Amino acid sequence: MLKTIIIVGAGSCIGGVARYLVGRIFKPEVLQSFPWATLIVNVVGCFIIGIIYGYLERHGTLSPQMRTFLAVGFCGGFTTFSSFMHESYTLASTQGVITAAAYAAASFALGLLGLYGGIKLAC
After folding, report:
1. Where are the alpha helices (DSSP H) in 1-79?
2. Angle in degrees, 0-180, between the axes of helices 97-122 and 81-94, rounded to the nearest 10
3. Do residues 87 and 103 touch, judged by C-beta distance below 8 A?
4. pTM metric for this prediction
5. Eight-state DSSP code of residue 73
């Protein structure tokens, strides 16, 4: 159990730092107009988890520790549902419900497409 907690923590740490660095790429005025960084990390995270599970479906050789490190740790630390929800609320409050709905729909559709693409790439 302790080993698994350390594996998840290490992956989450790396994923969280990567998520922060993606956010730093965008200038504050760009982030205020639309939450591009969160959209990108969530779609990329879906793509990565698609690769992980697609690889497992085809090869089944990824160790349980590596799967936990990548899927639960890294992807869990890299993607962020709470930021997505806050940014959706902020968009609805500042730019209207249509913009917020477009962001939510794009996040869902692109995330699903990323997951599918990752699975297909791995297979």
Report:
1. 2-25, 28-33, 36-58, 64-67, 75-78
2. 150
3. yes
4. 0.80
5. I
Parent domain of 90: 2-122
Reported as a pLDDT band with limits 50, 70 and 90, residue 46 is: very high
For the chain, how many residues are written? Answer: 123
CA distance 110 to 116: 10
| Three-state DSSP class for residue 79 | coil
Number of domains in the chain: 1
96 in Cβ contact with 28 (< 8 Å): no
Please give the Cα distance from 102 to 110 (Å, whole number): 12
pLDDT digits (tens, 9 = 90+) for 60-98: 888 889 989 998 999 999 998 888 998 899 899 999 999
